[in-house]
Amino acid sequence: QVHPVESGGGLVQAGGSLRLSCTTSARTFSNNAVGWFRQAPGQEREFAATISWNGATTLYADSVKGRFTISRDKAKNTVSLQMHSLKPEDTAVYYCAVGRSSSAATSAQYYSYWGQGTQVTVSS
After folding, report:
1. How far apart are CA 41 and CA 15, in angstroms?
2. Which of 117, 119, 97, 118 is nearest to 109 (CA)?
3. N or C: which end of the chain has fewer CB within 10 A?
4. CA proximity to 123, closest of 74, 71, 86
5. What is the spatial distance between Cα 81 and Cα 20, in angstroms, rounded to a whole number?
6. How many angstroms separate the CA atoms of 4 and 72, rounded?
7. Count of alpha carbons within 13 Å of 44, Cβ hemisphere only?
8. Which segments of 24-117 are extended strands (E)?
9. 3-class SS at 63?
């Protein structure tokens, strides 16, 4: 119940769509921001998107802005990442992480608890 759990990854063709979901602990992290990070083969983990605890603030990396949308369902303690117009360079393991407080932030060091990741593969 401490670490978030991701789901929804898979294999899609370029131009396709996927929706990733992150389920967090209702008891412990109901008031915390949630972020999505990704790590491609041979690359460092990088920021993708984040959302404040109440959904009022969202931030996106330039590489995904306009294609990805982050949202949350407070009642279900679930954060989703809707991905459209996927590109081969989006191929990575996607991780959900819970922030230290309610504010959204892009730095990985701000996030305290991480999921195990879900694989997204985009073919050419």
Report:
1. 21
2. 97
3. C
4. 86
5. 5
6. 14
7. 3
8. 34-39, 46-51, 58-60, 68-73, 78-83, 92-99, 111-114
9. coil
Q: What's the whole-number mean pLDDT along residues 62-75?
A: 95
Element (H, E) at 29: helix 26-29
Sign of CA dihedral 15, 12, 73, 36: negative
d(CA 77, CA 91): 26
Long-range contacts of the stretch 40-45 (C-beta < 8 A, 24+): 40/89, 40/91, 40/92, 41/91, 41/92, 43/92, 45/95, 45/108
User: Using one digit for the tens of pLDDT, what is the confidence trace for 12-49?
Assistant: 999 999 999 999 987 777 789 999 999 999 999 999 99
State which amino acid sits at residue 62: D
Average pLDDT along the chain = 94
